[in-house]
Amino acid sequence: MSTNFYPPLNLKVITPKLELRGATDELLAQLLPIVRAGVVTRPPDPFDDPMSLYADNPLRERKWLQAIWRGRGNVHPDSWRLYFVVMLNGQAVGMQDLIGVNFDTCRTVTSFSWLAPSARQQGLGREMRAAILHLAFEGFGAGQANSEAFFDNSASNRVSESMGYQPNGTDWATRRGEPAVLNRWRLGREDWEPNRRSDIELIGVEECRAVLSIE
């Protein structure tokens, strides 16, 4: 897919450890073997989601791609989702998404991510979150970032807590069709500002802001 006609595919967020690149079809193809193998290796199970990251779902690859393609075409001032492939030493190892929630009025975002099992326990989860928050706050002028994780997903909850998010209640979601409690987290711009980083580079933001109707 040509990136010239869809500026979000030209977006890059570069940190000293990794890069987030707009999820072109070419980069998604690099992730297909990971999706095919499944990224769920042990509890806790993740969300039931069109990403279909369970290895026992025979339609996972098709559902995963279709969800991303639909998301590209479903962009409105109040609702959008940007998809990034996480690149580590030139290799695709996961995804990091940024989702605009009533962004035109509330300036609120949330995030979603996953990593290949081989890329875990290297501090990349925190680095990915720092990168996407820099894009949200510095690049797009967000006022608040939200995150959710199941109560027993200690890794994701630790990342949110370590980055200054504050507890914001609980909710429910399903995994493998069964309900489970979600921890909700909130990071206001006033909490992000004191810890903002100076070593993260943003590329292609202005062109993307126009597509998302961000003034």
UniProtKB/TrEMBL annotation:
Gene3D superfamilies: 3.40.630.30
SUPFAM superfamilies attached to this UniProt entry: Acyl-CoA N-acyltransferases (Nat)
Domain of life: Bacteria
Annotated GO CC locations: cytoplasm
Domain N-acetyltransferase: 39-188
Record keywords: Transferase
Keyword check for Transferase: yes
Molecular function, one GO term: protein N-terminal-serine acetyltransferase activity
InterPro entries: Acyl_CoA_acyltransferase, GNAT_dom, Ribosomal_N-acetyltransferase
Name used for this protein in its record: N-acetyltransferase
Originating organism: Deinococcus psychrotolerans
